[in-house]
Amino acid sequence: MLRxxxxxxxxxxxxxxxxxxxxxxxxxxxxxxxxxxxxxxLYAAGKLGNQIDAVLLGSKAQEAAASLQKLxxxxxxxxxVVSEQSLDDLLxxxxxxxxxxxxxxxxxxxxxxxxxxxxxxxxxRVGALLDLQPICDVTQILDPNTFVRPMYAGNILATVESQxxxxxxxxxxxxxxxxxAGSNSAAIETVAASTSVNGAEIPPVQWEGxxxxxxxxxxxxxxxxxxxxxRGLKNKETFEALVTPLADTLGAAIGATRAAxxxxxxxxxxxxxxxxxxxxxxxxxxxxxxxxxxxLAGIKDANTVxxxxxxxxxxxxxxADYGLVGDLNELVPELTEKLxx
Amino acid sequence: MSSKLRVLVPVKRxxxxxxxxxxxxxxxxxxxxxxxxxxxxxxxxxxxxxVKLRESHPDLVESIHAVxxxxxxxQDVLRTALAKGCDSSTLVExxxxxxxxxxxxxxLKKLVQEKSVNLVVLxxxxxxxDSNNTGxxxxxxxxxxxxxxxxxxxxxxGGASVRVTKEVDGGEEIIVAKLPMxxxxxxRLNTPRYATLPNLMKAKKKPLEKLKLKKDFxxxxxxxxxxxxxxxxxxxxxxxxKVSSVDELVSKLKExxxx
Lengths: 341, 259
Fold this sequence. Notes:
The structure holds two protein chains of two kinds. Chain A is an alpha/beta fold. Chain A contains ten helices and 18 strands. Chain A folds into two domains: 6-201, 3-Layer(aba) Sandwich (Rossmann fold); 220-340, TPP-binding domain (Rossmann fold, 3-Layer(aba) Sandwich), CATH 3.40.50. In chain A, β17, α9 and β18 form a beta-alpha-beta unit. By secondary structure, chain B is an alpha/beta fold. At the A-B interface, α4, α5, β5, β7 and β8 of A face α3, α4, β9, β10 and β11 of B.
């Protein structure tokens, strides 16, 4: 059997794959803080049943590696640290040679990344270079070769099987629990940053700046409670006057529909839906949200949906566990007040 | 090579965004017969951005070429792109099953090289397979810079480089890259124009080159790497209840221990 496996893998450019092993990309901020979505990725990586190596990038990767050691990831074998300042901006052009280098040796049967802006940015780029089609936005891992991923704005769930020599997987973090605090005995290993792929240098690109929304609120992707507003809130003032106090009362994250974002009621990083964030809170309260399929795609996995809307025919009521028909301007302040009690 | 922009805009024909697709009886694929098809909304934004770049920098944009890979019917979306302002187009014909982004990116790479394109503007994802892959893959194959999820595009240095504001998880990020490069469009980049009837008539006279995927792109494997085992519709949520007052809502939420 060993021999047949060796023959099978030799067909893939002689990559010497000896045993199944997973490489997990752990996304960190510039300050070296592990992104919450990476905790879900580590859980998903564990579901593959292999031992896991984690890779961390950036000048603060060493610090991040130390905090990774304080997580409950039993199957974590090694933490690979690539402490290179050029990786701080997490530009896909810079990440790609590093990841390509780690994968092309063939030691890993699986590579797992979060389906975040960063993960979505570089994984296909690496895939093309390895001649592998990534499996994107995975919501279920059935076995190490079989995955479920949503299509058509979440209206279709596709079960796909991959017999590729290496599986490149981006996981939807809201579909998996996060690993908790604890400890593991993974050793930290420093890896040099590769800056070329088959002799091709990093193409000319520069990070110029970012406008990130500062918020004390829970992160949308992992929030247990979310209050979101739609076009029905009419303007920015009403949005702030109604959504913010209710969210504060509940300790909830704030979300929005595309219509609300387009109309300038709030920042576009709050958009929930097919092309925005996909969320899975315990409680989702939709204010003045009609319920277009693109928005519903983002809240399919919400546990309990509450909708307040003046239009009794709004499609949101078809997915709402509790619906209340009426004027937002009266009902929402009343709700906020009564929840405070 | 002159510094002028030669833009390639890949467009995909997809089930119209307003239609809720259904799976077939055998649960092997999505039922697409007799459904309305349209240009993928993000690709529509890519066409618009290319045309807008030329309108604001008439001297810098030399050509805008639209391309689609798919069935003969995909020429409809190319005609739409031509009516909106693209100069010429290519249909890479292929019937049968859906092609993976990896295949499409290899086809696009060949077209980019043949037509000495230096800017590719494409949608961030197709609303059917929701992969969000093709732009990044093409950038990888060409080793060009990529700017994904663009919500603002500015030409700098007479078009030699481009500043792109990208939508990222926590807000926006700004990058500057030198041509040649790849840009993928996000929803807020622009509002696509409508193709007017006179322009649709004129578009019929614009060039539409037809190639065959199997014959003209030999050497690109069309075999899917991912095997679609099953498709299903997600479980339908049981219908909820309507409450009549805030008090009732609050008591229900408390009962369910949600607040």
